């Protein structure tokens, strides 16, 4: 675990995130403009997945940022980094060094996706996976900044203005529609196919983004198609969610690329540490199967904090992107009320639809977007270095 204070790092770092407009030139050694083998393109794809999973040295905070900003699911145990408290307090200044990491390093994943899209020998399926990566990454940027510069494979590295939030969502939707039409389907039995973008992964993210974009009918249609595919099912034991997963990125202990599980445990209580909020845990009824995802019995020995154990406490937590329970809840919101009944029977719960979403999708990086749909207005400022370098970017 790298726990060097960001305060100390800030003293030795300049905000080089955008010294030249968007500093997102590809770090890939392969030449995208030359004919590459299918294996070479797959290597480029693996590089793009790795940046989505772990954008930088503190990439876990890039993943966790939106949940931290949502606040109501987390009970902070300790803020060692004042930058993390800024996120929680909705007080991040433009000069914050971590803010610059979020901005430039998510664009690194977009750059890698764009590199693949320029490869003349890339197949449509490979391009579809690259566009899924680009869509997912823009969704992360949307969560944090809302309207951001939209950079596609034709970007010429000149200053570019930020697009509107609606334009960003529509860009994401178009990428996901391409991925849906061109990427291979997931296997109903081989869960390894759920570790890379599939047709179903694109459909699931489409359902989420359609909902965010105010098109609940289209969201419901995608969700229903996934439910009816029969490839995924709600598990009787939420701790064993293999049957539920539509898409996730696998953590790797050697790379230490999934640290959020550790930060959401008492093991991190002397560092930056987050427990589950008391009002979140209070939503769990006496028979709710999701109680197994919270260390309720251990609270007397952990300062009366209750921690989520949805992720492992090693540094190899998987990154959950989409699960079938979310599709049941989206379908129910679209008017298929029987899906809520089926979902609640599986979870042994009787909450409102909003509260079911809050509990079921807690710590899966969607709570912030739900709160914004309810009227939350806060967004992060652009990093000062980006504003200084790009004449079209303002806060």
**DSSP summary: helix tally:** 16
Rg to the nearest angstrom?
20 Å
What would CATH call the class?
Mainly Alpha
- Provide the CATH topology: Serine Threonine Protein Phosphatase 5, Tetratricopeptide repeat
DSSP E strands, number: 4
The end-to-end distance, rounded to whole angstroms, is 34 Å
Strand content: under 5%
Mean pLDDT: 91
Residue windows where pLDDT falls under 50 for at least 5 positions: 1-29
Total count of domains: 1
What attributes characterize this protein structure?
395 residues, two-stranded antiparallel sheet, 46% helix, disordered N terminus
3D architecture notes:
46% of the residues lie in helices and 5% in strands. It has helices at 6-12, 38-53, 59-70, 82-89, 97-117, 124-145, 165-182, 199-212, 216-228, 260-263, 278-281, 324-333, 337-347, 353-360, 367-373, 384-389; strands at 74-78, 245-249, 273-276, 319-323. The strands form two sheets. A two-stranded antiparallel sheet has the order 1-3. It is globular and about 60 Å long. It is mainly alpha-helical and 395 residues long. Helix 2 runs parallel beside helix 6 (124-145) and helix 5 runs antiparallel to helix 6 (124-145). The chain has a single domain (6-376), classed as Serine Threonine Protein Phosphatase 5, Tetratricopeptide repeat. The two termini are 34 Å apart. The protein has 16 helices and four strands.
């Amino acid at each position: 675990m790298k726990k060097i204070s960001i305060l100390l790092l800030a003293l030795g770092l300049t905000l080089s995130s955008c010294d030249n407009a968007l500093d997102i030139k590809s770090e890939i050694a392969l030449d995208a403009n030359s004919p590459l083998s299918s294996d070479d393109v797959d290597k480029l794809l693996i590089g793009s997945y790795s940046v989505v999973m772990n954008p930088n040295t503190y990439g876990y905070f890039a993943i966790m940022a939106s949940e931290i900003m949502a606040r109501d699911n987390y009970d902070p145990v300790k803020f060692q980094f004042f930058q993390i408290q800024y996120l929680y307090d909705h007080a991040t200044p433009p000069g914050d060094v971590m803010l610059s990491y979020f901005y430039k390093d998510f664009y690194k994943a977009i750059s890698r996706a764009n590199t693949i899209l320029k490869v003349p020998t890339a197949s449509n399926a490979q391009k579809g996976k690259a566009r899924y990566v680009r869509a997912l990454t823009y969704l992360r940027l949307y969560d944090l900044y809302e309207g951001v510069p939209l950079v596609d494979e034709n970007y010429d590295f000149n200053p570019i203005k930020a697009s509107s939030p609606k334009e960003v969502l529509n860009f994401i939707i178009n990428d996901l529609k391409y991925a849906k039409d061109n990427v291979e389907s997931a296997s109903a039995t081989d869960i390894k196919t759920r570790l890379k973008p599939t047709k179903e992964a694109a459909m699931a993210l489409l359902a989420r983004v359609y909902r965010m974009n105010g098109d609940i009918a289209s969201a419901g249609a995608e969700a229903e198609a996934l439910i009816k595919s029969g490839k995924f099912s709600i598990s009787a034991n939420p701790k064993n969610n293999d049957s539920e997963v539509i898409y996730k990125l696998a953590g790797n202990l050697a790379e230490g690329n999934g640290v959020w599980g550790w930060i959401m445990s008492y093991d991190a209580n002397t560092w930056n540490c987050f427990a589950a909020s008391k009002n979140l845990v209070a939503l769990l009824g006496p028979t709710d199967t999701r109680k197994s995802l919270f260390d309720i019995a251990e609270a007397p020995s952990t300062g009366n904090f209750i921690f989520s154990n949805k992720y492992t406490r090693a540094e190899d937590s998987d990154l959950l992107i989409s699960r079938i329970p979310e599709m049941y809840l989206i379908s129910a919101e679209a008017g298929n009320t029987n899906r809520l009944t089926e979902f609640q029977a599986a979870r042994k719960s009787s909450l409102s639809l909003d509260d079911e979403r809050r509990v079921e999708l807690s710590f899966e990086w969607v709570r912030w977007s739900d709160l914004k749909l309810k009227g939350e207005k806060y967004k992060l400022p652009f990093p000062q270095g980006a504003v200084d370098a790009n004449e079209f970017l303002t806060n």
